[in-house]
Amino acid sequence: MTTAQNTEIESEGGPFTRWVRNAIDNPGKVHRAMFYVALVFFLFTTLFPIYWLVVLALTPNNLIVDMGVVPHGFNLSVFAELWELVPLHLYMFNSFVIATVTTVYVLLVSSLSGYAFGRLEFRGKGGLLLLLLIISFFPPAAFLLPLFKLFTGNVVVFGLHSPNLFNSMGAIIIPFSGLFLPLSVFILTTFYSQIPDGLEDAARVEGTTRFGALFRVIMPLSAPGLSTAGILTFIAVYNEFFFSFLLSTGDPENGAPLVWGILAFQGQYASMYNYMAAASLIGILPIALLVVVAQEKIVSGLTAGAIKE
Amino acid sequence: MKAENKRTGGLPRPDYALANKIETLPEELYAYLLVVPAFLMVGVVALWPLLETFSMSLHADTLTGITVGEFVGIENYVAVLTGQRAVVLPSSLWYAVGLTVAFTAVSVSLETIVGLAQALILDQEFRGRAWVRMAIILPWAVPVVVQGMMFYLLFEPSVGFLVAPLQELGLFSSTPLANTQDSLILITLSDAWKTSAFMALIILAGLQSIDRSLYDVSRVAGATAWQRFKFITFPLVLPAVLVGMLFRTLGALKVYGLIEVLSGCQTVPSMSCLVVSAFRSNRYGTGATLAFFTALIISLFILVYLVKFVDSLRDIGGDS
Predict the structure, then answer these.
(1) Were both Cys, which of A117, B12, B139, B248 would link to B197 (CB 3.0–4.6 Å)?
(2) How far apart are the first and last CA of chain B?
(3) A18 vs chain B: nearest CA distance in angstroms?
């Protein structure tokens, strides 16, 4: 009785009442609406800081006062001029070299140990994996002082001084090669362990060597794992701050990475906000492109591998 | 050495001999051979530095160059833990520990909630999903230095439009980047902005490995959307959430770069900040003590994960 009466009253109500009734009748629609509200909210919060960099980069520096959410002007010349203030391209090139060398090295070394951990039985396997896991969790601050001592030639072993690598890319590449190794080992261990034994046995019976089986059978079959591990390592190295900042003097000729290029704007040209924003945008660009190209791979690679650890 | 030469003497090239030797190696020895490069690397850049840090922490500061003075035992630890060294550092150790742990707790909770929500959205079917996924994952790929710069440019009072209204509401001071409390809030927000994407990525990977037929069954059984989430999605995605939380907890405890770019170690002295400032002022004994103590605190958190890991080892056939 009452329900019927309510319906009657509501059908005479305004658009809001009608909307509410519609929503009660059809909960799927409400879920859909909530879904889109949340979607738009997250897109906004995620993209706004990047949009803000675009706003600042396009606004000429003398007009950066009382900024709203739109650019005051359309000054594209910053993107051409900033290279003259700070040789950002040199810093970015250094970051690329550091990230590429580290990634290649890490993939090679972690392939060997990933094969051992994933496909062979040996004593102390669990302990060694555990050791790798623990290492990857320690703070870089715990390694800083001895590494600085090592790379400045102040560690003496059997009367020999350690080579002076400070002020070269080596001082950054070596710590990264060790510290980003465990992640790749874990990913590749999982991938390599999933290749059926039969495929490897067949290759071995055909006369392939042990290394041949690893490099020509196991690795090609684990290509998704290798690319996931490679992409994650590359991004982690390119984005790293601690060692990139503290194990370099900031001279681009001596291998200083992107961190120093961006900070050079904050230091020397502290009030040139448009340049700071433009340099930041350029700094993001290569990795953003990598994510655009590889996001499918990253998600599927993680689904297939790393997460099961 | 001599025996080796005799055996390989008949072969034309030494690398053939080596290849032969590898082929005939027992499986266990071959496995050890394969893991040697990895552990050599980890030994040089992680294990040795950790031991060296501990040994340096037992020696006095010299303030001249990259050296430590005479052996002083646990004197540095006593001085650091009782706050006697606070005058030469941005803050006392316990203040830094409290600040870092508070930052970690708040930012990891925030990231988990936001990351879970984002992952649930990305797991739906809708038009343009690939683009939305790209946009939501993007912050994860932004370098720390740029992340810091972004929030610096948003909250530097002479640039950003957000400071004035927030100040009028009484939420922020007029110079949020020079105020510890405000900066801490901004660093937390900035960290959540970037690493929610990481959480979303990990949780999404977990969501996508859930068997879809479970949902069909539950629909037939008449479960509501909330029940489907509570009884299927959440329990099955929980391991991924926990792994993500652990990674983020350990990451957040190391926070340094963001602080350096956004507001400086004097304003927000995290644990890593103290280590760096001792390092910068050539106090190697004190710096090593702080570093080792930081490592100890983080190991406490690692210990929690250890138990879980030993269980999962059985799945990949390792001994424990």
Answers:
(1) B139
(2) 36
(3) 24
Is residue A73 one of the residues assigned to a domain? no
Q: Are residues A150 and A251 in the same domain?
A: yes
Interface test with A, best of B145, B147, B306, B312 (most A CBs within 10 A): B145
- Write down the residue that tokens 């980069």 correspond to: A57
Question: How many whole angstroms separate alpha carbon A171 and alpha carbon A244?
Answer: 9
Burial class (CB in 10 A: 0-12, 13-18, 19+), A258: buried
Mean pLDDT of B49-68: 86
Express each pLDDT in A221-258 by its tens digit. 888 889 889 998 999 999 999 999 999 888 888 889 99
Closest CA to B262 of B184, B196, B193: B184
- Report phi then psi at B5, rounded to 5: -60, -40
In angstroms, the separation between the Cα of residue B1 and the nearest Cα of chain A is 23
**Comparing C-alpha atoms, which of B126, B130, B148, B127 is closest to residue B139?**
B148
Residue range(s) defining the domain that contains residue A276:
78-308
CA distance B167 to B154: 14
* A59 inside domain: yes
Residue A151 belongs to domain with CATH number = 1.10.3720.10
Task: Count up the domains in chain A and report the number.
Answer: 2
- The DSSP letter of residue B162 is S
A29 contact B CB<8A: no
Q: How confident is the model at residue B275 (pLDDT cuts 50, 70, 90)?
A: very high
* In the predicted structure, residue B250 carries a pLDDT above the cut 60: yes
What integer is the mean pLDDT of A110-127? 91
Sign of the CA dihedral with A240 first, then A245, A250, and A254 last: negative
Instruction: State the architecture of B101-274 in CATH terms.
Output: Orthogonal Bundle (1.10)
Handedness of CA A231, A235, A238, A242 (dihedral sign): negative
> Each residue of A154-180: b (16+ CB within 10 Å) or e?
bbeeeeeeeeebbbebbbbbbbbbbbb
For chain A positions 203-262, those within 8 Å of chain B (CB to CB) are: 209-211, 235, 238-242, 245-246, 258-259, 262
List of residues 6+ apart from A63 with CB closer than 8 A: A72, A73
Q: Tell me, yes or no, if B241 comes closer than 8 A to chain A by beta carbon.
A: no
The answer to whether B50 touches B296, Cβ cutoff 8 Å, is no
- Residue A225 domain-assigned (yes or no): yes
The ipTM assigned to this model is 0.85
Residue A147 inside a domain? The answer is yes
